[in-house]
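User: Please predict the structure of the protein below. I'd like the answer in structure-token form so I can feed it into my own downstream comparison script.

Assistant: Understood. Taking the following sequence of 188 residues as input:
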Amino acid sequence: MNIILFGPPGCGKGTQSKRLVSERGWVQLSTGDMLREARAAGTELGQRVSAIMDAGNLVSDEIVIELIEERLPEAEAAGGAIFDGFPRTVAQAEALDAALAKRGSKVDAVVRLLVDDKELVARMEKRAAEEGRADDNIDAFKVRLKNYQDQTAPLIPFYAQSGKMREVPGMGSMDEVAAGIAAALEEK
């Protein structure tokens, strides 16, 4: 099963992805994590994307699609993928559909986590204090949230019209959100 966890930065996609990996054995494909790893490793890719990420801007479609396609065989072997933070644009969604179709697969469900902006800011501040991520400062977060609203939110009708969109309240405890996701994945 291939699912997309969808929502604004700080809504809990990463936390819930890790739970699904643990519970179901699927592979988490987080472009944000992949890009941060490349940057930390000092790779050529990491150097190219560092300034873009620190400013809170989106990395090009070509780079993130390349990252995802490299990991699809691993996801297939595990029985499914959790796309976390990808796709971020309609072009990326179309590229993902094409990449999966070439492999005889598809996106099975899109789980949209619903969290209000005030809570997102509070979560970002807490994560910045605990994890020290360079892209978790208030200015970069505001850019990331605006980019989400301008570039990623248009995916809502894209996936809603496909009948794959499931909305889950993301304001509860981690266990409550996980239960909501589990129920959404059971929907047909």
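That's the full token string. The two ends are 13 Å apart (CA to CA).
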